[in-house]
Amino acid sequence: MRWEGGRESENVEDRRGESGGFTRGGFGGRLGGGGIPIGRGGLGIGGLAILLVVSLLLGVNPLDLIEGNAPQQQDQRYEQSQAPRSGADDELKRFVSVVLADTEDVWQAQFQQMGRTYQDPKLVLFSGVVDSGCGTAQSAMGPFYCPLDQKLYIDLSFYRDLRDRFRAPGDFAQAYVIAHEVGHHVQNLLGISDRVQQAQQSAGNRADANALSVRLELQADCLAGVWANQANRQKQIIEPGDVDEALNAASAIGDDRLQKQSRGTVTPDSFTHGSSAQRVRWFRTGFDSGQMRSCDTFAAERL
Ligand SMILES: [Zn+2]
Q1: Cα(153) to centroid of ligand 1, in Å?
Q2: Which of 255, 291, 261 is nearest to 276 (CA)?
Q3: Predicted TM-score of the model (pTM)
Q4: Sign of the C-alpha dihedral, residues 285, 169, 179, 94?
Q5: How many angstroms separate the alpha carbon of residue 53 from the centre of ligand 1?
Q6: DSSP letters along 65-129, please?
Q7: What is the pLDDT of residues 119-169, one digit of tens each?
Q8: Are 280 and 168 in contact (CB under 8 A)?
Q9: Distance, CA 177 to ligand 1 centroid (Å)?
């Protein structure tokens, strides 16, 4: 990806090295004015509602994190991420700032075409744990977007995981991660996230709520593709191999691939983000068309 020398967004909040409220209970620990007990089975309904409106990149089951069942690895990562920052980290910060600026330019233009005004989201960099408008979150959950404070959250150590654990290296894979979360911000501004949340609440069963989540997530992938297309039109950012990097990343974090890796079996009803093939297909759909209207995953018969 060609990004060196590009404009850096001013909407990056660097909270690395600050200690968030690191509670073993994890997400939800500080919600609702401290009124929500966390421990096993004790999460209040408010906490669950908020978990649903947080859009994660990965199909991590938030309940695993709430109940303290998350893998051991997390604690190690927490320590690692407290290590002094290197020049490489600063370069990564510049990189994400440029990508965020590229998303601002693209979405401002797209919203203008619709006669609307785009409000830039903030991007919060954190290490280990962070207090967000949606509660306390750990890096193990992966990058996420909180609609309540309109901020994207990422622990940059996730990019190491993306390269090593998910085998999805490359700067355009990294850009896709940001573009996907910004896609959730676009959905939030357009009122799509709210409508989905309401439909989920009236769905009555987990499988239907999950199916809606999959459509929302695949739409965010499609919007990431629209961004890649439009950013390339504006600034010729794409180099040979970049699109394959993004498609490979989309595939690497498909629910089927992640479930197979972690449990050895695949349960489609529990998908919240879509299969590898679906994630690839929707990023590609957005990328090939460059048009938001191609991203109507809610009307699509075949995902
Ligand atoms: Zn997402």
Answers
A1: 12
A2: 255
A3: 0.85
A4: negative
A5: 10
A6: HHTT-S-THHHHHHHHHTSPP-HHHHHHHHHHHHHHHHHHHHHHHHHHHTT--PPPPEEEE-SSE
A7: 999 999 999 999 999 999 989 889 999 999 999 999 999 999 999 999 999
A8: no
A9: 9
